[in-house]
Structures are given as structure tokens and as C-alpha cells.
């Protein structure tokens, strides 16, 4: 009785192939090419003993080992070695390549390989866990309990829907098919904002408000970048604008690029400060929530539920929204840069646009910024944070006095300043926004003014980091809370 062999091919680009002699019912020619050459002697009592020659393209372990009755197989690796009688005798004599004898030769290396692979996987897993623990420990050093807390803004139905569909490991959004379904169920109600990017509408989805940012066709790269970041990075944080869906849809015979997010009635910080004044406590709350969001962006969190570090690159009061609880959340990641120390990459995207000129740091204006360094991009965010802080403080009531809202550098550049206008003021003249003397009479504003100045250093590396500012503001708030208790 003949023993049939099954051939399971597992090709490897690194394996060498040999020319082998071939004879038997499956041979089309007298030669074949394979990873090993073989000789099979069938010794069944019910048939005449005979020999077959050929080659295997599958695993040597699968084909040249295993116990089979009435069958002896010899394998070798050299051109036509299975047709050379003296060579086969030598192979058999020195290596014992019969079925029963080959098992130790093939199984032991395979077992060793599996053990080494297991140890390597365990080491990688342990290293990632340690990196994540170190990252979280570093955050805890700055009392960053809220940093890794995530929340869904808005009412319960939308929150429950997002909690049901949003995965914890791959992005902040819904599955793509669900995103497209949501987008097609939205009714646009009113336009609440316009800009060079396009329009923002208040929409309704199953009776709830959502914000729909409709990008203009010339700003397709920003839409693509923001969609990419939200769908690949875990960004659910109470001080980052909540993402719901993104879709390219056709309406009124034209293609529209939609980004759907949580809706906040108060609008942008820019709009909010136009119509609202704050006290020192409210000022501190706005400042603190922005820096919490910026810290979450800037810090890389390791592990499967982590995220790369992100620099915003276009931080300004128009790109920060004010929530109903008077905390802020950072929006508009169309120019963001991502960096992973763990994976060793810097992703600057393909968007040719640059940030808003009024908020550009000196090194961006004079084009000395190191574009290959992620730290450089974070330092430009800190410059802009200092300007936003200045805008908030201007609208803070101090001893019954408050100033009208003004954008940074309102007194030295035109309404729509050019690149050269800003370069002259910031780089050549090295001017900074004026800090009124009245702020020095109020403890919170005095402390925030100091932070501003340290965000505006001409030398980028001398500026405060987001983590350092967060620690300072936390201490300031703790001091204020203690003062209240004492009274």
C-alpha cells in the first residue's frame, strides 16, 4: 500500500532552492526545483518496493519528518543530490535522514525558535507596559489626574451612542460606515460661523445638536488631516473638541467635506470674549482648561490605549471653544504635527498651509524654525498660548475695571496683518503685547502675566512647556482655594 504525502507550501524569500532529480507519477519532467530534494523508498509488503525522487517547496519539518509505516524518506540540500547514490549514502550515514531519525534534527531547532519568539514577545510587551507606566507616572508628577480622564460632552443619548461605538484603541471616532450613516442623517439648521476654511453649521441628529464644519474645496488638506488624526489617534479628552464623524458627501450637485463634532452654544473663545467679561476665578478656569487640553496634545502616552505627541500649530482664540461649564476645548487640528518617540517618527502631514500670522512665533516669521524637530512645533504652541492668555486677561474685571476685547498686537499691526508686518513687529522690533499695571494688583492676573512673559521669549527653548504651566496654574488654583477656606 502506498503512503500518500500532502505538500503544504510555505515559501520564504530567504530560502535557497535546489535542482533535484524527479521520478514518479507526479513528475512532469525529469527535474524539479525545491527547498529540499528527497528520495522516498516504499517498502510495503503488498506492493513491489520502489523508489520515488522529487523536491519539496514546503516546510522541511512537515515533509521530511513524522513516523510513517512502510516508508523511509531521505532529504538533502544540494543540486541533484537525490540522484547521486554516493552522496545519499553519505547523507544517510552522517545525518540519518530517515523519517524516525530526522525528528530530533528538525524539532529541536523549531522548539528553540518558538521559545525565543515567546521570550521576545514577552519582552516587547513588558517594555511597552513599563513605558506606559513611566509616561503616566510623569503625568502624575504634575497632578494630572484630569489629563487621562475622558468625557463625552453633550446630552446622554449622543454620549451613549458614542460610548457604544467608539473603540478605546484606534482613534476617537466611530467606525467609518457608522460615520457615513450619521452624516447622512444630519439636518443643517443654521450657519453659525464663516471663515477662510469654509462654514460651521448647527445641525440636528436624532433631536440633538451637533456642529458641522463644511470645508471649502481649497482647504481639502485640512479636512483630510483632521479626519486622519481623529480616526487614528485616541483624542477623547474633555478639553479637546469631541469628534463624531467625517464624511465626503454630495449636496446640491457639489461635493462637500464635512467634519461633525460636539456643538457648544458659547461658540469660540474669540466670540465669547467679545460679549462676555469674567472675574479672576473665571479667568483662571479658562486658562487652566486650555493648558489641560494642550498638555494632552503635547504628551505622548504609551501603550495600546496611548497616543503620539501632537503639536497644534494654529492655536488661537478662534480655534478654542467655550463649553457650557465655562471650560474650554481645543479645536481645529488641520495643521497638527504628530510625533512618536516610541515608534521614532515625525509626521508633519502634507498640508502646505501655515498658521495664522498674528499668532506666529518669531522663529516661524523669520523662518529659522527647525522643521525636523518636534520640540520646535511645541514651542510655537506655547508662544500662541501666551497670546491667548493675554486676550482672556484683558476681559477680566480688576477692581471694577475691564478693557475692551482686542486681538494681540492690535495697536501695532493692521486688522489683517501681512507676514512682513508681523515679522517687523515681532522679530525686528521684538515688541510684545502690553501688560497693564492694574494686573499687578490682582494675584491671579499677576501670576498669569508672568506666565505670558515666559511664553514670549525670543529664544524658543527658553519658553515654558505646557506641563510646567499646568503645574504652576494648579498650584495657583490650590492657593486660591485655600484662601477661600481660610475666610
TrEMBL record:
Main location: membrane
TM spans (from-to): 102-125
Gene Ontology cellular component list: BMP receptor complex
UniProt cofactor(s): Mn(2+); Mg(2+)
Record key words, sorted: ATP-binding, Glycoprotein, Kinase, Magnesium, Manganese, Membrane, Metal-binding, Nucleotide-binding, Receptor, Serine/threonine-protein kinase, Signal, Transferase, Transmembrane, Transmembrane helix
Protein localization: Membrane
Domain of life according to the entry: Eukaryota
Entry's Gene Ontology BP terms: angiogenesis; heart development; transforming growth factor beta receptor signaling pathway
The enzyme's E.C. designation: 2.7.11.30
SUPFAM superfamilies from the UniProt entry: Protein kinase-like (PK-like) (SSF56112)
Keyword Transmembrane helix assigned: yes
UniProt domain Protein kinase: residue ranges: 186-476
Any GO molecular function: metal ion binding
Annotated binding of ATP, by residue: 213
Domain GS: 156-185
One Pfam family here: TGF_beta_GS
Membrane topology: Single-pass type I membrane protein
Reactions performed catalytically: L-threonyl-[receptor-protein] + ATP = O-phospho-L-threonyl-[receptor-protein] + ADP + H(+); L-seryl-[receptor-protein] + ATP = O-phospho-L-seryl-[receptor-protein] + ADP + H(+)
Family: Belongs to the protein kinase superfamily. TKL Ser/Thr protein kinase family. TGFB receptor subfamily.
Name the UniProt record assigns to this protein: receptor protein serine/threonine kinase
Protein source organism: Hymenochirus boettgeri (Congo dwarf clawed frog)
Amino acid at each position: 500500500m502506498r503512503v500518500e504525502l500532502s505538500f503544504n507550501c510555505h515559501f520564504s524569500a530567504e530560502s535557497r532552492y535546489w535542482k533535484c532529480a524527479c521520478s514518479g507519477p507526479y513528475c512532469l519532467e525529469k527535474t524539479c526545483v525545491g527547498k529540499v530534494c528527497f528520495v522516498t523508498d516504499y517498502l510495503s509488503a503488498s506492493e513491489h518496493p520502489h523508489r520515488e525522487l522529487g523536491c519539496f517547496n514546503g516546510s522541511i519539518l512537515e515533509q521530511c519528518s513524522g513516523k510513517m509505516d512502510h516508508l523511509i524518506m531521505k532529504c538533502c540540500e544540494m543540486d541533484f543530490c537525490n540522484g547521486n547514490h554516493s552522496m545519499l549514502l553519505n547523507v544517510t550515514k552522517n545525518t540519518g535522514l530517515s523519517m524516525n531519525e530526522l525528528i530530533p534534527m528538525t524539532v529541536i531547532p523549531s522548539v528553540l525558535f518558538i521559545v525565543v519568539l515567546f521570550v521576545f514577545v514577552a519582552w516587547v510587551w513588558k517594555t511597552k507596559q513599563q513605558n506606559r507606566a513611566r509616561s503616566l507616572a510623569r503625568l502624575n508628577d504634575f497632578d494630572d489626574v484630569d489629563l487621562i480622564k475622558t468625557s463625552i460632552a453633550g446630552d446622554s443619548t449622543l454620549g451613549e451612542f458614542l460610548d457604544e461605538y467608539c473603540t478605546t484603541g484606534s482613534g476617537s471616532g466611530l467606525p467609518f460606515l457608522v460615520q457615513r450613516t450619521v452624516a447622512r442623517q444630519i439636518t443643517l439648521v443654521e450657519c453659525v460661523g464663516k471663515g477662510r476654511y469654509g462654514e460651521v453649521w448647527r445641525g440636528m441628529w436624532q433631536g440633538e445638536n451637533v456642529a458641522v464644519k463644511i470645508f471649502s474645496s481649497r482647504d481639502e488638506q485640512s479636512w483630510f488631516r483632521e479626519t486622519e488624526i481623529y480616526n487614528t489617534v485616541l483624542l477623547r479628552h474633555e478639553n479637546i473638541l469631541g469628534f463624531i464623524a467625517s464624511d465626503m458627501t454630495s449636496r446640491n450637485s457639489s461635493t462637500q467635506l464635512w467634519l461633525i463634532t460636539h456643538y457648544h452654544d458659547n461658540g469660540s473663545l474669540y466670540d465669547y470674549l467679545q460679549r462676555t467679561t469674567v472675574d479672576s476665578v473665571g479667568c483662571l478656569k479658562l486658562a487652566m482648561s486650555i493648558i489641560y487640553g494642550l498638555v494632552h496634545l503635547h504628551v505622548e502616552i504609551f501603550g495600546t490605549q496611548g497616543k503620539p505627541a501632537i503639536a497644534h500649530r494654529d492655536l488661537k482664540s478662534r480655534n478654542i471653544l467655550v463649553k457650557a461649564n465655562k471650560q474650554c476645548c481645543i479645536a481645529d487640528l488641520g495643521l497638527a504635527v504628530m510625533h512618536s518617540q516610541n515608534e521614532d517618527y515625525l509626521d508633519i502631514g502634507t498640508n502646505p498651509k501655515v498658521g495664522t500670522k498674528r499668532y506666529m512665533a518669531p522663529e516661524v516669521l523669520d523662518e529659522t524654525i527647525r522643521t525636523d524637530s518636534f520640540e520646535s512645533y511645541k514651542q510655537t504652541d506655547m508662544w500662541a498660548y501666551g497670546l491667548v492668555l493675554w486676550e482672556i486677561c484683558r476681559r477680566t474685571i480688576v477692581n471694577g475695571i475691564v478693557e475692551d476685547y482686542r486681538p494681540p498686537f492690535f495697536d501695532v499691526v493692521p486688522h489683517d496683518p501681512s507676514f512682513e508686518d508681523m515679522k517687523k513687529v515681532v522679530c525686528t522690533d521684538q515688541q510684545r503685547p502690553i501688560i497693564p499695571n492694574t494686573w499687578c494688583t490682582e494675584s491671579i492676573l499677576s501670576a498669569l502675566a508672568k506666565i505670558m512673559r515666559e511664553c514670549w521669549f525670543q529664544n524658543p527653548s527658553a519658553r515654558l512647556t505646557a506641563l510646567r504651566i499646568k503645574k504652576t496654574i494648579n498650584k495657583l488654583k490650590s492657593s486660591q482655594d485655600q484662601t477661600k477656606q481660610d475666610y
